[in-house]
Automatic annotation (TrEMBL):
Its main location: membrane. It is found in: Membrane. Pfam families: BT1 (PF03092). One of its GO terms (cellular component) is membrane. The chain crosses the membrane at residues 31-51, 57-75, 91-112, 182-202, 214-235, 271-288, 294-311, 323-340, 360-379, 388-409, 513-535. It comes from the Bacteria. This is BT1 family protein. PANTHER family: FOLATE-BIOPTERIN TRANSPORTER 1, CHLOROPLASTIC (PTHR31585), RNA-BINDING S4 DOMAIN-CONTAINING PROTEIN (PTHR31585:SF5). It comes from Pseudodonghicola xiamenensis. It is a multi-pass membrane protein. The keyword Disulfide bond does not apply. Keywords: Membrane, Transmembrane, Transmembrane helix, Transport.
Length: 544
């Protein structure tokens, strides 16, 4: 027993306490910006019910909108390079992003509370699409700055101004990236807990009163941009204090400020990033406003071509072996993230057929975020001691296994388990159990790649590296949205839509949802494993 207790104490020290010991106050500003992004989850549940109750849109439409919402993240290419160029003034981008986020929440508040003049200016669906696009654009701007701040936050010198050892700096970079994910998931946990309180008793309210609850949540969301702005102001204050301390120790202002400038000197503009970003915007707007068939597919193909071109330029500054390994790793993660999802129909089924109310969905969201947070600590040794390839294979197999409970719920497994267990293992119990097992896996794959970039990318191009690689992997989410749309066109799922007088206008039809869930599970498990095998047999083999 003593040996077991000693082993547990050693494990807890290595997994949790060691991470806390490596925390630095300079890490706090980027963590605040990441926290603000995670806190955006406060509107995830209300958004689902707002769409279901207020908008007459299909699952295919929402999957298509998911494609457009994901595209602004490809703008991290020019944004990341702009951050490197405007290193001393990058905080201004956070202010601009905060304005876009606030505008998005203000629009949704107006829609939820039925502001009279808004439908007269544009249809409610158009307002919703505008709000859906403004918010991610703001988060893209802030995330590009947060990536740069996460590099700047890692100290290069000790309190006396002496350079830190390379091993110490490397460990601090890994800690910073891990804490960034912790801040994001921690925010999701906090707002999920808040949602449980905000949605308490909403199922008993008349429809006219639910809008006020929805509006209050969007109003609370206006605190999110305040958090991110406070983070960059804190970073500026911390840096000024450190510069003043170095000057008091006898360094000149130029020498003191040099500690916070990127190594390699001033970054020279690479116009290819801005030209590529401009082409991306031009292609997206031109095709998006046209009536051409397959406009989304053409935008995706054009965006992917631009990103690949910029990646090729960026990888030229790396050693050939490192460049090939990074390409192989990026391909594996791209395919892993590009696998399709069931779409909105799966959530509609749980609401209409399983009677999952907003408060219970908020409970599931809280379980997801809390256990993801715990899992990131518990799985930290796994991430540190195994390659990204190993992690992706493990996650793919786990995803296939963990899709079984959702498939079982559709086919009524709860009708068999509930009588056998005295009502204990009902639909909600199975949903909670599935969420608890699946939660820790979502954020794991990206952390090793982010730490690799922080360690190996040239110091004066860190933000650009983060941005281009993030654009590539985030385009995978656009590919996932396209795949989701295709599958929803093949397997049609519709929810019940009521007319203003309450009479059914469109009947609910979940008859094809079961096949959709099975196909998604098979694709999500098999395709990443095939790609891993192909990459590992090629010159792009990754051992990191």
């Amino acid at each position: 027993m003593i040996r077991l207790w000693a082993g547990l104490r050693g494990w807890f020290d290595a997994v949790v306490l060691d991470l806390a010991r490596q925390m630095r106050w300079s890490f706090l500003p980027p963590l605040m910006v990441y926290f603000a992004y995670g806190a955006s989850g406060i509107t995830s549940v209300v958004g689902t019910f707002f769409v279901k109750d207020y908008l007459d849109v299909s699952a295919v439409f929402l999957a298509g909108l998911g494609f457009w919402v994901g595209l602004p993240w490809a703008l991290k290419m020019p944004m990341g390079h702009l951050v490197d160029l405007l290193w001393r003034w990058k905080w201004l981008l956070v202010f601009f992003g905060a304005g876009l986020i606030a505008a998005s929440f203000a629009i949704m508040y107006g829609l939820a509370t039925r502001v009279d003049w808004m439908p007269g200016v544009m249809p409610v669906t158009a307002w919703f699409v505008l709000a859906s696009l403004l918010s991610p654009t703001g988060y893209v701007l802030q995330d590009a700055v947060a990536d740069a701040l996460s590099v700047e936050a890692v100290p290069k010198v000790d309190e006396s101004g002496h350079p830190l050892e390379e091993t110490t700096v490397r460990a601090l970079h890994t800690t910073m990236q891990t804490l960034g994910r912790v801040a994001l998931i921690g925010a999701l946990s906090a707002v999920a807990a808040l949602n449980i309180t905000l949605f308490a008793g909403i199922e008993d309210l008349p429809d006219s009163a639910k809008g006020a609850v929805y509006g209050r949540i969007y109003l609370i969301g206006l605190a999110i941009p305040v958090i991110s702005v406070s983070g960059v102001l804190l970073a500026k204050w911390q840096q000024n204090r450190q510069i003043a301390a170095l000057i008091r120790r006898g360094q000149s202002r130029t020498e003191a400020e040099a500690h916070f400038a990127p190594e390699g000197g001033e970054t020279k503009p690479n116009w290819a990033y801005f030209i590529g970003g401009g082409l991306f915007i031009a292609i997206s707007i031109t095709l998006g406003l046209s009536d051409l068939p397959y406009a989304q597919e053409m935008i995706f193909a054009g965006s992917l071509a631009i990103v690949l071109y910029l990646m090729r330029q960026l990888l030229a500054v790396l050693e050939p072996a490192k460049a090939r390994a990074l390409v192989g790793t990026a391909i594996i993660i791209f395919v892993f993230r590009a696998t399709p999802l069931p779409g909105a129909g799966a959530t509609w089924f749980t609401i209409d057929e399983l009677d999952f109310d907003p408060q219970f969905l908020a409970v599931l969201s809280l379980i997801t975020s809390v256990l993801t947070l715990v899992g990131m600590f518990v799985l930290r040794p796994l991430m540190a001691n195994h390659t990204i390839v190993y992690i992706v294979v493990l996650l793919s197999l786990a995803a296939g296994l963990l899709s079984l409970p959702n498939i079982g719920l559709y086919y009524g497994i709860q009708n068999w388990t509930a009588p056998l267990t005295g009502g204990l293992v009902d639909a909600r119990f199975i949903a909670i159990l599935d969420t608890a097992m699946e939660s820790p896996l979502g954020q794991v794959a990206m952390i090793p790649m982010l730490a690799w970039i922080a360690r190996n990318a040239p110091d004066n191009l860190k933000a650009t590296f983060f941005a281009v690689m993030a654009s590539f992997t985030n385009l995978a989410l656009s590919a996932s949205s396209l795949g989701t749309k295709y599958l929803n066109q093949v397997f049609t799922v519709t929810r019940q839509v009521k007319a203003p007088d309450g009479s059914p206008q469109v009947p609910a039809d979940y008859s094809q949802l079961g096949l959709l869930l099975i196909v998604v599970a098979v694709i999500g498990t098999v395709v990443p494993l095939i790609v891993v095998e192909l990459v590992q047999r090629s010159r792009l083999r990754s051992n990191d």
